[in-house]
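Q: Could you write out the predicted structure for this multi-component system? I'm mainly interested in how the pieces pack against one another.
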Amino acid sequence: MMKKILRRFRPHTRFSTKAGMSPGTLMRLEELDDDTITCYFTSYSKKHFDQTKEVKLNECTDILNTKGVGWLEVEGLSNTDALIALSEILKIHPLVIEDIQNTEHGPKFEGFEDYIFILIKSVCYDSEKKEANFNQWGFILMENLVVSFVESKEDLFSSVKKRLENPNGRMRNQGPDALLHTLLDIIVDNYFIAIEKLGDELERIEDDVLDDSDESIVREIHQYKRELVYLRRSLWPLRDVVRKMTFSDDDLLTKNTRLYWQDLQDHIIQVIDLLELYRDMISNVHDLSLSIISNRMNQVMKVLTIFATIFIPLTFIAGIYGMNFDFMPELRWKWGYFGIWGVFIAVTIGMIIYFKRKKWF
Amino acid sequence: MMKKILRRFRPHTRFSTKAGMSPGTLMRLEELDDDTITCYFTSYSKKHFDQTKEVKLNECTDILNTKGVGWLEVEGLSNTDALIALSEILKIHPLVIEDIQNTEHGPKFEGFEDYIFILIKSVCYDSEKKEANFNQWGFILMENLVVSFVESKEDLFSSVKKRLENPNGRMRNQGPDALLHTLLDIIVDNYFIAIEKLGDELERIEDDVLDDSDESIVREIHQYKRELVYLRRSLWPLRDVVRKMTFSDDDLLTKNTRLYWQDLQDHIIQVIDLLELYRDMISNVHDLSLSIISNRMNQVMKVLTIFATIFIPLTFIAGIYGMNFDFMPELRWKWGYFGIWGVFIAVTIGMIIYFKRKKWF
Amino acid sequence: MMKKILRRFRPHTRFSTKAGMSPGTLMRLEELDDDTITCYFTSYSKKHFDQTKEVKLNECTDILNTKGVGWLEVEGLSNTDALIALSEILKIHPLVIEDIQNTEHGPKFEGFEDYIFILIKSVCYDSEKKEANFNQWGFILMENLVVSFVESKEDLFSSVKKRLENPNGRMRNQGPDALLHTLLDIIVDNYFIAIEKLGDELERIEDDVLDDSDESIVREIHQYKRELVYLRRSLWPLRDVVRKMTFSDDDLLTKNTRLYWQDLQDHIIQVIDLLELYRDMISNVHDLSLSIISNRMNQVMKVLTIFATIFIPLTFIAGIYGMNFDFMPELRWKWGYFGIWGVFIAVTIGMIIYFKRKKWF
Amino acid sequence: MMKKILRRFRPHTRFSTKAGMSPGTLMRLEELDDDTITCYFTSYSKKHFDQTKEVKLNECTDILNTKGVGWLEVEGLSNTDALIALSEILKIHPLVIEDIQNTEHGPKFEGFEDYIFILIKSVCYDSEKKEANFNQWGFILMENLVVSFVESKEDLFSSVKKRLENPNGRMRNQGPDALLHTLLDIIVDNYFIAIEKLGDELERIEDDVLDDSDESIVREIHQYKRELVYLRRSLWPLRDVVRKMTFSDDDLLTKNTRLYWQDLQDHIIQVIDLLELYRDMISNVHDLSLSIISNRMNQVMKVLTIFATIFIPLTFIAGIYGMNFDFMPELRWKWGYFGIWGVFIAVTIGMIIYFKRKKWF
Amino acid sequence: MMKKILRRFRPHTRFSTKAGMSPGTLMRLEELDDDTITCYFTSYSKKHFDQTKEVKLNECTDILNTKGVGWLEVEGLSNTDALIALSEILKIHPLVIEDIQNTEHGPKFEGFEDYIFILIKSVCYDSEKKEANFNQWGFILMENLVVSFVESKEDLFSSVKKRLENPNGRMRNQGPDALLHTLLDIIVDNYFIAIEKLGDELERIEDDVLDDSDESIVREIHQYKRELVYLRRSLWPLRDVVRKMTFSDDDLLTKNTRLYWQDLQDHIIQVIDLLELYRDMISNVHDLSLSIISNRMNQVMKVLTIFATIFIPLTFIAGIYGMNFDFMPELRWKWGYFGIWGVFIAVTIGMIIYFKRKKWF
């Protein structure tokens, strides 16, 4: 289980094979079978909308000269040569490509002269496996172009294309920064969905703890905490990234969208806030579960010990009259046996009263 | 129990149904039966006071042109179309309406060109259910108008209206910022009431812990901690909100009220301070309760074990003389049986003395 | 016990009765019997010294015109009307009076146009009850006047008056800021006394823990921690208050006293420092006490269990020869009984050697 | 084990022998056998590349006048006199040499008039011993020279030399800052390798905890935590060091490399980030392991106690009928013995049902 | 033990006797027998060196007019009158003397018009008592004079005097700031020695924990933690003090020594760093020791319980055949007794196999 999770955070490039190479050097990754890179290109303006279509790399050359706003989707990050070629066409720094390929990289915002580079992770909480799965997106915002990079295809942005098709849609009149904002907004909304599922999960765990705590709940709490750790790691730097965008005075981010960036930042803070709330809650639930398990255990041990304790003197008394002394007057008494039963019962009742009075059970 | 509590923090709009829509898009919320929005309007100046009355949306159009200070109360946030219509009348940005509808949103202060927007949660501690209940308020401060939004009716501000009726009341001479301050002050005073009830609760819990700790106290402490977590979450950002208002140089906030904002900020800091104090205290009480429970358990186990330990050698001795060896001289002695009783008593006393000396009980 | 302590921190005004009133509104407090306010007035300059005398409110009107430096002591905060009247005579903002009456308020420094307002708590550690008791002081520094407000009389400043009587005393030549500094310095020195007593207490607790830990020590540590929590709460904001005074450029604070303010700040930092040291120490002592209690418990349980374990096989062996089988050759042996004693002794010695070798006792 | 680890962090110079000497005084270190210092010198420019060769100290004098970019590697820090001599040749401050010799020193960046001084630790995680081993590097960046100091030879930079041999390599056209960046980049990449191994280790530990926790896992977790503590200690200040370099306006750091420094800083943040993630994870795993061990222990104790508890009343019943009363009617019944077996079985089944119903096993 | 330690941190002046006095008032300390103050004076310049000699207070008057650099050592802080007299000769503010006498005061740096005042604690770790002992030093740096105050004589600076005797020594050419730096450097170097001893101690404790944890190790860890708490308390503010000196633009601190102050600051950061490392380590070791003790205890209890559990059914079986029923066929069987031995052995082996399979021992 752990292996999968850590792998989610591992870059494809094992650094052990890369250390010692020149920085900015991109490697062909042997371990991946499929070297294909798939590009889709959509362009729109107030007047036209060109359907998304698959493009080849050599067709990308005139993308920069597209009319209106262009949106190039790049799927698959394993073919380093192709990405290098693309970066040369788009005039992107090779270090940017290196960051995009490093799927282990945290959220990042960097403003270059002609473009803005954003790295962000989308999240998808798998309720069954109880795992948060991450997918890293790279975005390049240029004067009239948004380029999105993602490793594995994820159908996150289909709604955007539908909205773009609508000739009266607000986005059709706006620049590429509005498109970028919409894409990021969808990613952040997906965090809310994950958070909601985590909230449901937390409720379920707390109910389980209050009803019937056993060892397995400890493991569930452990896994829950781990997912929170992962989510926090992805989200904390995100706040910074969006804050930088909100206050960036880059010409590529028009004034019109500033309020929307602020709104996005608000949403991220809200997500982080809920995450911290859940962290406090699961920590309280964890303490509670430990207390309940320990109390239950103590309860069992105490009842059993009291039970045993009652029988110990009885057994001793029975032992006394099992002795074989020649002269033991009680053994000869007619009512001795029934008397000893009376003693047994009296001792038992006496001890129960004593324990009750001491509130031991 | 948990379900209700988390629901208190849940927005009406489940994000799972909203993700992928354009930001600023407001949705009709299916799950609510009652779509009605109720508006009350009060206006006053030095000279006149117009009683609060229910107004319809189409009557709101000339609210902006009201004489003196106007106060529009909007109850019910579910009818998105109506809120949108109202926002257009009042020239409020749609993102503001979205924030107001998002009852999960934290406290917020935002200054726009023509108005100030404040989000704040009022609290009401239900001593019986031991739950803090929150109700989110949105306030818009305009040049001569305060608009308050709330989801469910709460009779918080009736005293304000009474004071406004009084023609010699201080507020009658002041602007809408004084009204806004009064409203916020009442909300903050309600935090004090909740804090006071929490203080009483804390005393009760500590007394219970010192008197008679059982498992249920652990659950009570858990719930108490949870309520503190909720309250902290609502209060911490509030401090920031009021600080921003105190130092805001917006024209809508006149100098006359500055001192009062500072006073409000002071009160919030005091509430937070008490909350932190309670947090430290409940944490100490929690530690104490664990120690006491564990000590009591240990005490029981120790006494029982000592009790059992005393009987173990006695039973062994009785067992010896229960053996059927042909030649066991003691069994033939005349005073053997009484002698063995002497041994029983001597062993018991000896062990009790030994245990006493070792301070084991 | 707790009730008293929390009450120490409770304002007289229960907010539950006050919420909904206009801010700055002062209430007559029903629950107090004695509504009297007592004022003492002292005035001095290089040349004259007017003995402290009880003044009535209507005599206070010309206090502002006193020659030299004046010191008005106000005892009793319950009579709101009288305080309001006084505030009007002295031209103090009603919010200041509200703060003074709120004995739950934390330390505060606020500079107004014509006066400086300081709120500070004096502390007195009651070694017997092991409680830190607080008394809130309000100070107003005016051009030639210091006004001190306190709820219940406390004989803290008698030494100051003696020093003022001395015509060659340094203070006789200095302004009211020197008087204020002296008063605050005495309050801070009282913190040192409380800290010293807490230090003695800490030593005693640690010695007790190392000598003879039982359940009661856990309660003592709990109480100690609680007192530290209270003291921290009073002291942390104090640091800020005095820092503000040190760096304040208010004309009322002359350059001559600046060094003394800095010295005062130093002392407060030192007190806080010691408090943090004690917090670390008591936390270590708490851990130690838990370890020692648990070790002792384990020790007892282990010895008793070993003891029981030795007798278990012996009892079994005795049980064997208590069986009534017709044919049990050992029972017929002449030395059988003595042989079985040999077995008992051998088993016992063998087990003791085994346990010793395993270092189990 | 610990001894070796702490020694890794110990400076060669025991301060106990050094205290009291003039600052800047360098001592001959007695405890090292090999006093030799080995220097290698490489020089390159666009046109030429002079193979690395061993140089003697007296040959170093004209190093500063080398053409193109020079790279002087100094191995062995024990010969203080030699280092002093070298520092005089290179005009480096003696305090710099003292810092380089102090292998306990943390990462450091300091800009001097004519040179930049950097201290940094390289790391190598030994998977077998489960130890992170550190090696401290000192770098001096001058106008046309990079000097690297290291205590023990480590074959870290062989790849750099290969790249320099290539006449078309990017570095051949760049200044000494590019060389320095390449060297630091390799060191940081080595942190990634260590982090990766730690990630594998963490997975292994978590699997072990979930499968089969015994005491040894607690020791492994302890060691893992310790290595994280060491790594954090080396890495946190590194972030600051590289941040300073990124924003340094020193002429020695050309604009061309700024982006690369930023990239390096990014990598360090990523490493720290992963380290913090691992810290949270191992802490969760530690809690989990304690819970699991304690649960397993409780499970064993509970089953054994229940087992014992079932036999206690049975033994008592057998004891009753082992008594020797003259008149015990049951003993005479024909089916008494079989009846008692029935009682034994009934009691056993009854107790098992009772325990099952109580969910005690 | 604790008493001594806290006393190390206690000022001589019990504040309980001092509160209420005018600030700056210095008291004669009754509890000290020896009121003597001892002064030594050394002066040196490039050309001359006047041997350290004991001076009397009335000889101090022309100290300020000494040629070259003067160094006045004052030993003994109890004679307040003498210190006041000295402060008047040297024109030092009485509050400075008060700070020097307050041996409880933390590190401090304060720049006055004509002099700089530094308070710093020297440390000496007593390996036998396992206690860090502190000695507070006050330094006054004047134009051509360094005054050092210390309560009890400590032979820390003898090496300095030897260096000053050397006419070619670097210090002979430098001002009093170089002397001050040398003195502080020695004090900081002494921290390294204490830290080293603590490091050895930590290694020893960890080895003990891994080898053979018993209760005493818990006490040792407790004491170790306490010493770290003390050291941290002395060191944290020291960092600030030296940082202030490094960046101070006071004329008394010449540019020549700036680099040395920075070096000193570096050393202090390194000491603090190691202290934090040790804190993390001892905390890990503490957790480990608790785990190991608890594991060992569990191990003992488990083995003993299993042992007892094996005998419980055996004793029951023996009890069965000790019953006196008239009709018990097994008792009459010829091989009954040997058969029962077979049952005993079979049950024992069966249970051992069962426990082994369950991995319970």
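A: Regarding packing and overall arrangement: Residues 175 and 244 of chain A are 20 Å apart (CA to CA).
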